[in-house]
Amino acid sequence: MNKERSNHINPTNASKAYIKNIKDQIIDKQASRLFEDLNWIKLKGISCNESDLFPAVITGRGKKILLLHGFDSCFLEYRRLTPFLKKNNKLIIPDLYGFGFCPRSRGNKYGFKYLIKHLNSVLDLFSDNQPIGVIGASMGGALALELARQNPKRVDKLLLLSPAGLVGKNPKIPWPLNHFGAFFLSQTYVRRGLCRQAFAHPTKSVGPAEEQIASIHLKVPGWESSLADFAAQGGVSDCGLPKPTQPLKIILGKHDRIIPKNEKEKTNKIYNSSIQIATNSGHLPHLEEPQLVAETWKNFK
């Protein structure tokens, strides 16, 4: 298992140092360009370490959109969608709390309520009394729903991309099983398998660049402990109801092999009239059909 950092190392500095070491090694050119728009933002009341800053890509001009990535991922997930949206929108793409390149401070907790607290602080910083749109992928879709419910006047519309965690209830994974689970997810063969499973056509769509991005954040100091704590808190689940009051659309990948069949069926029953199918996508329509996603957003009133 990964060794945790020493107490005297500043978590934000550790995350920044890690990014500095790896960003020139990025194979995917669109991902590399996202690093150029990476900012470190101060958020109130989020970390027990008051010096922590949090990573967020901020790019483009126009009406603001907050983009939320999925489980055990990072802002690089939106590398292919960003060029289509940034022409007419200001994009805010944070790493979710305890995920991606976020600094992990000792003593912090990393469950659902902490993720939402972090996102509410992001809204505090960027909404400027003007409602903004939210796009959420996979687990980010479930978080988008809860954020919208809590902020009916600050979030004006929602687009969910193969949302996960809308139905069912995750168990809380006790110690030491939570740490064994995180260790398992760190294994190269597991990451490669999950990456391939997420795409509709892995033989054609998955290569060294995709596999690199799927695992690039694993050596951020504190990755294992934050993921284990997230599992111990029960993760994100059962977020589909009540429906938010804002306009909402959902894009589901026709070939999604990540979301269980029963969860897909229940999601379809709840949100049937709001769903469209991305026929050439698996679990990642924003990577496999980014132009379709961008056009859906543009035409969504």
From TrEMBL:
Entry GO MF terms: hydrolase activity
Keywords: Hydrolase
Pfam families (alphabetical): Abhydrolase_6
Residues annotated as domain AB hydrolase-1: 65-295
Cited InterPro entries: AB_hydrolase_1, AB_hydrolase_fold
PANTHER family (alphabetical): ALPHA_BETA-HYDROLASES SUPERFAMILY PROTEIN (PTHR43689:SF8), HYDROLASE (PTHR43689)
Protein name: Alpha/beta hydrolase
